[in-house]
Known about the structure:
This protein is of the alpha/beta class and 123 residues long. 25% of the residues lie in helices and 18% in strands. The protein has a five-stranded parallel sheet. Strand 4, helix 3 and strand 5 form a beta-alpha-beta unit.
Amino acid sequence: MQLISHAQHTALPHQHTLTLANDADPMQQAFEGIQTIVLQFPKFTDGRAFSQALMLRRRCGFEGDIRAVGDVLIDQLSQMQRCGFSSAVLRADQDLEKGRQLLTHFSAFYQADLTQPKPLFAR
Length: 123
């Protein structure tokens, strides 16, 4: 997962970007020509974008960049990555370097996820 600064995110070309509200149904969207889908976390306790990312990867087969924006905290990054996010823009008070360190903290997970479809016991 790539951590993006606010400046890098605002420089994103909008013609190949789709921003979805956290209550939008990904199954009802057209992805032709879309390279980046921006999913919103209006507050860190609202996890609907986790479900949207999973749907985009599994059901819609979207292979481009899925980016988390909004109230994104470093302690959510690992779960975001496991649900299909490929980049995130951290909340302004979060430390990018600490976020990068946390993403390498665990070498494996017991449960299956998008990055590893088999649980640890079945590998």
